[in-house]
Amino acid sequence: MAFLGRQGGAIRLAPRPDSGTIPAPMATREPPLTPEETLRRVLRTARIDGLSVLVVSGVFTLWSLADRDWTEAGIGLLICGAGVIELRGRALLTAGQTRGVDWLIGSQVWLLAVAQSYFLWRLQSYDPELVRRYAVPLLRSGFARPILSAAGLTEGDVLHDMRAVYTTSYMIAAVLFFIFQGSLALRYRRQRPAVTAALGLANRPV
Predict the structure, then answer these.
(1) DSSP state, 6?
(2) Where are the beta strands (DSSP E) in the chain?
(3) What is the DSSP string of 14-41?
(4) N or C terminus: which one in the chain shows less Cβ crowding within 10 Å?
């Protein structure tokens, strides 16, 4: 095949002598990220994720304290710790220390361990009275009534299946959490060589 040039931003190739059709244009590939750009993305991700964990877990902790649920409050504080660890790792990278990547990975492992332990504890400690206490006001609210009516369900139907809904919800949350936090930990690990290279260039004497 002979190179004919570009048309519409894509490479065009001449047809084979024995073919009456023109091959599809070759897809252009984006150039790989430079170590500096990889470092910038890692720092941005760590800042967003770390702050998000701190805010969400902080609200969760305050809510639990207001409800005098000391166990939930303790779990919230443990989750806050993951956000602190991640932001600490980012600070180390900003200071030019490659060991900050270890803190970023460790924060995801810590968060994953705490969250999975919490989900497992919740699955094994189903309290129908507690669930009913929170579910009944919601089911009787102006928001839920039209939805139940449209689905042809009554309050009793939902409460009867609440155990299944409760279990399914926590299982889905556990799986999604494992996928997200696990993939983020692997992403930090894969980006370690590029981050190390970027910090090496930044710390190199001029």
Answers:
(1) E
(2) 3-7, 10-13
(3) PPPTT-SSPPPPBPPPPPPPPHHHHHHH
(4) C
Q: Specify the 3-state DSSP secondary structure of 154.
A: coil
Which residue, 180, 62, 189, is CA-closest to 112?
Answer: 180
Assigned token pair, 110: 């810590």
Give the up-direction half-sphere exposure of residue 172: CA atoms within 13 A in the CB hemisphere. 6
Which residue bears the tokens 């991700």?
Answer: 45
At 29, the amino acid letter reads R
Contact 53, 111 (CB under 8 A): yes
Q: Which two tokens stand for residue 61?
A: 């902790």
Is residue 141 very low, low, confident or very high in pLDDT (cuts 50, 70, 90)? Answer: confident
pLDDT tens for each residue of 35-46? 889 899 999 999
Smallest CA-to-CA distance from 50 within 115, 119, 103, 114 is with 103
Res 158: pLDDT: 75
Q: In the structure encoding, which two tokens stand for residue 201, read together? A: 């260039």
Instruction: Please tell me the predicted confidence (pLDDT) of residue 204.
Output: 56
For the whole model, what pTM was predicted? 0.71
